[in-house]
Design brief:
Blueprint: H1 2-15, H2 18-29, H3 35-42, H4 46-58, E1 62-67, E2 70-75, H5 81-90
């Protein structure tokens, strides 16, 4: 369980920055985006974008393949599945209150 918690916390930390979320949205919209194009689209310094890319890659959220003198980044399908499963587990079905099935909230 501790290994799963560590994995989930690393994924959550990797997503916990607006610039990294912008990078992920960009990669979703333009699969196979090249590093320089990411810098232009995100509007941050090259070194800052490189650090964000490193964090996302270390967490396994993206991949980076060398293509000549450039690195081609892409989303890693399924990398966020453990986090999605955990969030789904924490989300009670509609109508459940305090984790008690069938108990409706009253106002």
């Amino acid at each position: 369980m501790q290994d799963q918690d560590l994995e989930l916390s690393e994924l959550a930390k990797a997503l916990a920055h607006p610039a990294r979320l912008r990078i992920l949205r960009l990669l979703l919209a333009t699969p196979g985006c090249i590093g320089g194009e990411i810098v232009d689209a995100v509007g941050l310094a090259q070194s800052t974008v490189s650090e964000h890319l490193r964090i996302l890659k270390t967490a396994g959220v993206i991949t980076g393949d060398i293509a000549g003198p450039r690195i081609c980044y892409a989303l890693n399908p399924g990398a966020l599945q453990p986090l999605v499963a955990f969030i789904d587990m924490l989300t009670p079905p509609v109508g459940d209150v305090c984790g008690v099935p069938g108990r409706e909230e009253t106002s």
